[in-house]
């Protein structure tokens, strides 16, 4: 194994983007073109290593408590039934259990993660954005899976933790050659960028 760490500069307008299509260059484009491919699957998993049950509340963060929803046009589509809250509904959407909505992209920076949603059938351009923010004294680990046309599946782990002094936002990419950890926020020694249009992140590669 070979380990290498370095600092990376991110442009907030260009963004770090995980998308279900290969031809979307920006996050906002996904509302119109993301319907062409299967949805991204997003779910919370245990945030500590070990043989723990996925639904064990001691080790698995409550995804719905991290969610904020912002519909496009400022008005929510009335798909939430009387038996669940809006947060519970959007957790079903992220898990791929909705017949109408699907997640098509994830954008991450040093503040939060944004998730683009689209309405599946016959309403091109209808969608909204979910925001996941670190919460004080809480942790969550999220598995992001993206199916590709060649039959492969990309996997990512997003970890958020709200600490007293600084929040932690970390993404792990898994590749055939190994893995890459991107610390968007909270890694020791990450300086503030002098230009607020940019931010620094620490990247650590582990190559087989």
Explain how this protein is built.
With about 210 residues, the protein is mainly beta. It is built from two helices and twelve strands, in the order E-E-H-E-E-H-E-E-E-E-E-E-E-E. The protein has helices at about 30-35, 85-95, and strands spanning about 1-10, 15-20, 40-45, 65-70, 100-110, 115-120, 125-130, 140-145, 155-160, 170-175, 180-185, 200-205. The chain has a seven-stranded antiparallel beta sheet with strand order 1-12-11-10-9-8-3, with no helix packed on it. Strands 2-5-6-7-4 form a five-stranded antiparallel beta sheet. The protein is globular, with a radius of gyration of 17 Å. The mean pLDDT is about 80.
Name some characteristics of this structure.
208 residues; mainly beta; 5-stranded antiparallel beta sheet
Major β-sheet profile: 7 strands, antiparallel
Quote the average pLDDT: 82
Question: Percent of residues in helical segments?
Answer: under 10%
User: What amount of the residues lies in strands?
Assistant: 35-45%
- What radius of gyration results from the CA coordinates? 17 Å
Low-confidence blocks of residues: none
Q: State the helix count.
A: 2
Gross geometry:
globular
> How far is it from the N-terminal to the C-terminal residue, by CA?
4 Å
Strand order of the largest sheet: 1-12-11-10-9-8-3
The sequence of SSEs as H and E is: EEHEEHEEEEEEEE
Structural class: mainly beta
What's the β-strand tally?
12
Give the secondary structure arrangement, pairings included.
Blueprint: E1 2-11, E2 16-19, H1 30-33, E3 41-45, E4 67-71, H2 86-94, E5 101-108, E6 113-119, E7 127-132, E8 139-147, E9 153-161, E10 168-175, E11 178-185, E12 198-207
Antiparallel strand pairs: 1-12, 2-5, 3-8, 4-7, 5-6, 6-7, 8-9, 9-10, 10-11, 11-12
